[in-house]
Amino acid sequence: MKVTWSPLADEQVDEAVAYISDDNPTAALQWLERLLDRTKSLATFPDSGRVVPELGRQDIREIIVRPYRVMYRRKDGLVEIAAVRHDAREFDEKEISP
Q1: What per-residue confidence (pLDDT) applies to 75?
Q2: Strand order in 50-51's β-sheet?
Q3: Is 21 a member of any domain?
Q4: What are φ and ψ of residue 72, in 5° steps?
Q5: Nearest Cα residue to 65 out of 96, 92, 86
Q6: What range defines the domain where residue 40 resides?
Q7: Tag placement on the chain: N or C end, fewer CB within 10 Å?
Q8: Strands 78-86 and 2-5
Q9: What is the C-alpha separation between 10 and 5, in angstroms, rounded?
Q10: How many CA atoms lie within 13 A of 75 on its CB side?
Q11: Section 33-40 average pLDDT
């Protein structure tokens, strides 16, 4: 499967890296590397994430890269990273709606 990123998810990753980097640039880089490793593995294991509890839909899943939720959609040979949200922030279904 191919892994792609939505424009929103790209923006959210940039914001997360900047936020973490304010306190610890090394930690920001380490988090980004973990994020990229985990999302890369979705190409081989697209069902490895859990179903997003707030939705209960099999096609929308998430992996956790602490302290962020990485939400993605599976469809026809494609995994699209839809949103990257800090787990303390309120869930917003509009972010992952197609």
Answers
A1: 86
A2: 2-5, 78-86, 68-75, 60-65, 50-51
A3: yes
A4: -145, 160
A5: 86
A6: 2-89
A7: C
A8: parallel
A9: 6
A10: 9
A11: 98
pLDDT tens, position by position, 5-14: 999 999 999 9
Is residue 25's pLDDT more than 80? Answer: yes
CA distance 67 to 59: 23
Q: What is the 3-state secondary structure (H, E, C) of 17-85?
A: HHHHHHHCHHHHHHHHHHHHHHHHHCCCCCCCCEECCCCCCCCEEEEEECCEEEEEEEECCEEEEEEEE
Q: What is the CATH number of the domain that holds 8?
A: 3.30.2310.20
Tell me, what's the pLDDT at 98?
Answer: 66
Q: What is the pTM of this model?
A: 0.93
Report whether 19 contacts 96 (CB < 8 A): no
- Tens-digit pLDDT profile for residues 42-95: 999 999 999 999 999 999 999 999 999 999 999 889 999 999 999 999 888 888
E strand or H helix that includes residue 13 = helix 7-23
Contact 9, 73 (CB under 8 A): no
